[in-house]
Amino acid sequence: MTKILAIIGARLNSSRLAGKHLLPLACDAAGNTLPIIGHILRRLKTCSTISAIELATTADEFNQPLINWAQENQLTCVPFEGDVNDLMGRLDRIIQRQQPDYIVYICGDCPLIDPNFIDHALRALKASDKDTITLKEGIISLHEGMGFYTRSGWNRLMAVSDCVMSREHVGYGDKLRPVLTKRYIDDSGNYGKITHRISVDTHADYRFMVEVYRRWYVNNPTETVVSLEWVQEELLKDSALFAINAHVQQKAANKNYAKASIYCHLGPQIGLGHFKRSELIANALQEHLSIGVNIHTYSEAGQRVDSSSKVVWHEDEQALLSALTEDQNPLVLLDFHPNFIDLESFANRLAGLAKRGTKRIGIDKMVPLLDVLDWLFIPSFNCPAHHPKISAGWQNYLFSTIPQAAKQAQILVLTGGSDALGYGRELPTILDSIGTDWPILWIQGPLAPAPQLPPNSAIVVQQNPDNLKEIIAQSEIILSCYGLSLFESIYGKAATLLLPPQHLCDEAELIALNQERCCLVSDSLEEAKVMLQQLLTEPEQRRSLQNQATRVFESHQGIQALIDDIRHLLGAVN
């Protein structure tokens, strides 16, 4: 009896999206959330040609959750004890144990592998005397993440996979020294109408896949698998879906990419804004320029937050400065509030990096370090100084995507990741005294204490919700502290009210913000109460603020502006 083995290759320590194989992606027929790898397994089980399925991963502790998932879902997995980067060795160990006649390798980050194509390719391979299959010359196809081999073909491939790159990438050895005979086949359908990424390697890829799966299951039963043909039609008719991850650059196996470091801080006084922005920048560098990034972070209170980025945590500022001094990467970015760092020490370290040719970029309030920076990118409408090394403006704001949604009669309260100004002590009582029938939703940041609600308060508290972007998009009125949340609220076209910012913003910036008329600016919590009451009773004022919000962000392109600046600074060609 012919034995056909499907092997799913997966490791959780991806350089661009760690843990991606276990990220949630829609539900199964029983209503249980399936991870990406669960959908891959489900699709393979619908193939009529496959005899056995096995997971190929490594035995290191980082991948233990993946091993546990395989065991819980009756997926055979014998973790590989060898070199974690030796993918070919990892697969070969399974193949020598299983002794299959044919092998189909499945990349564990592609939850849109097409079962019909897999059956089509395997039948063609079985009917031939060749080692592998490939599409006929000139055929363009959406398919990704698969490789097909006879047992003898696999052995030939192993024999020529004798360098680092060919051990890390399945099939690369045959590109260097062609040894495989090929059966050229037609596609299983017309999948060449559009070219697009259908693998998950970055945050943008994951957002794309989440949206694809969401749309499919709105109109299709949960027991069905997402049709790749349908995905192609959705991409053809909806440019917004296409744009979610169209900018992502695929990494080439034979190319060395630049690396970068981002330095930032967080904590009860500082808030989470610098860290969250650093995560966003790290993702952008990876997706647009394929630059690997480490985020070096000092937490003033020793608190840490979960992150899918590569974060190096430091116990104090001195440890952070030591890391900066030793940093060998060609690009360094700094995102700090200058009031909370030793500026002289940072200036000395940056001057030392300049002697090594390191490019140094400051983010936001780094004007005091301008002399030792190559570029200062200010994601703000307000530029404190005009200088040829400074870029600023409404178009520079660094936001992740805010979805489109119909506004609801809802008051949203955003006091920041740590509620650094302590709004939670007084503001809940003030809000309850208004007596509105509009729901009031208070977002408690991950580092913030719980707000002090009066007895029988009507305020609903949500702690660090995953769908905050959607909540911002839906809210008609938003009360916000000064910082990223304020400008995200304006960008989300809400009628936005700035809570008294105290020391977080200077008077000149507040005056300039007032002149833009895209939000209301309060000097005290009592004044904020009066302004909120006006917004609740005057729909024309709400519409005016929303219209002005649309105006100021009409030419917004923050991420692309930063990427263009970095590309220019590094002398990249693209």
UniProtKB/TrEMBL annotation:
Keywords of the record: Lipopolysaccharide biosynthesis, Nucleotidyltransferase, Transferase
CDD domains assigned to the protein according to its UniProt record, in alphabetical order: GT2_SpsF
Pfam family, one: CTP_transf_3
PANTHER family recorded: 3-DEOXY-MANNO-OCTULOSONATE CYTIDYLYLTRANSFERASE, 3-DEOXY-MANNO-OCTULOSONATE CYTIDYLYLTRANSFERASE, MITOCHONDRIAL
Protein name: Glycosyltransferase family protein
Species for this entry: Shewanella cutis
